[in-house]
Amino acid sequence: MQISRWLLLFLWLLFQPNGSFAAGAGSPGAVQQEKVELRNTPLKPGEATSSRSQTAHITARINGHQSIEYLIDARTGQSLELDIQSSNSQASYHVTAPAAPRALHKGRGHHSHFIATLPRDGTYRVLIYLMHNAAQDGESADFALNIRLRNPG
């Protein structure tokens, strides 16, 4: 039966620890969302105001199936740079563009770097989580996320 397969797929997605569906706030697989507040970086002598960049530095910890999704508002043509350092090599992340069906980038490990020119206006999402086996074992990861958003030019 076709309906049964769709129902099974939906239920499977619903209970995925790091999927886009969450069982609810406070549950072990719930995704915590945080809007990133970027701050203007000071201009260097002789630097044009159009080349101004904004930055944020975030430190946090994830445990087990917990994940944190950082929301970053950006515009087409801006450059997004992420530098992630983690205490656990099984810490992973993926970056998703607004209205995109799949991740723009996936990375993991103790130290990971990502840079891209953004394809569209909107809210970009950076989801940080532990790989399934590490999450199942109840591992945790301390991490530092450095974000830089640069204007084109």
Can you offer a commentary on this structure?
The chain is mainly beta and 153 residues long. It has one domain (2-150): Jelly Rolls, CATH 2.60.120.380. Helix content is 12%, strand content 46%. It is built from two helices and ten strands; from the N terminus they run H-E-E-E-E-E-E-E-E-E-H-E. The protein has helices spanning 2-14, 132-136; strands spanning 31-35, 39-40, 53-63, 67-74, 79-86, 91-96, 105-108, 111-117, 122-130, 140-150. The strands form two sheets. The chain has a five-stranded mixed β-sheet. Strands 2-3-10-5-8 form a five-stranded antiparallel β-sheet, with no helix packed on it. It is globular and about 50 Å long. 21% of the residues are buried. Mean pLDDT is 84; it is low at 6-27. It comes from Microbulbifer harenosus. Residues 1-22 form the signal peptide. Keywords: Signal. This is DNA breaking-rejoining protein.
Read across the widest sheet, the strand sequence of neighbours is 1-4-9-6-7
Count the E strands. Answer: 10
Q: Percent range for helical residues?
A: 10-25%
CATH architecture assignment: Sandwich
Q: Which secondary-structure class do the elements indicate?
A: mainly beta
Largest sheet, in brief, is: 5 strands, mixed
The amount of beta strand, in percent, is over 45%
Q: Roughly how many Å apart are the termini?
A: 56 Å
**Count of discrete structural domains:** 1
What form results from the Cα inertia axes?
Answer: globular
Low-confidence stretches: 6-27
Computed over alpha carbons, the radius of gyration is 17 Å
What is the CATH third-level topology name?
A: Jelly Rolls
CATH class: Mainly Beta
Mean pLDDT: 84
Q: Give the SSE string.
A: HEEEEEEEEEHE
> If helices are DSSP runs of H or I spanning 4 or more residues, what is the number of helices?
2
